[in-house]
Design a protein that fits this description.
Helices cover 79% and strands 5% of the residues. The protein is mainly α. The chain has one domain. Helix 1 crosses helix 2 and helix 2 crosses helix 5. The radius of gyration is 14 Å and the shape is globular. The two termini are 15 Å apart. The mean pLDDT is 94.
Length: 116
């Protein structure tokens, strides 16, 4: 049950990001649900491999290259799904940062409410 709530909140965070960043477009809540699911899947399966492969450049840039990886993955999901569009790589970077912040805030609030 908790996983479904977090998934729905991540979809809500995607809709919020689409309202803040003009280069990110979500066609509706169902598209946001699909995008949140695919983002979770990509971040679970592909992101660790990319982090390992780009470890030297990540160390040289003191970790800032992780923003590029996150932006690339966000942009990639936007190019794969219909109904979720990320116009460019830089919109993907900004969207990934805002999505992380919104998702963290909503998940933290949900965890506090579910504890009581």
């Amino acid at each position: 049950m908790k996983l479904l709530i977090i998934w729905a909140l991540n979809a809500l965070a995607l809709i919020a990001v689409a309202n803040f960043v003009p280069g990110i477009h979500v066609d509706g809540y169902m598209a946001a649900l699909m995008a949140a699911f695919l983002l979770g899947l990509v971040n679970t399966l592909i992101r660790p491999i990319l982090l390992l492969l780009t470890l030297p450049i990540t160390l040289v840039t003191l970790g800032l290259f992780i923003f590029a990886i996150n932006g690339f993955l966000f942009w990639f999901v936007g190019s794969v799904l219909k109904g979720f569009v990320v116009d460019s790589f830089w919109h993907g970077v900004l969207g990934a940062v805002l999505y992380s912040i919104f998702s963290w805030a909503l998940s933290s609030a949900a965890n506090q409410l579910l504890k009581k």
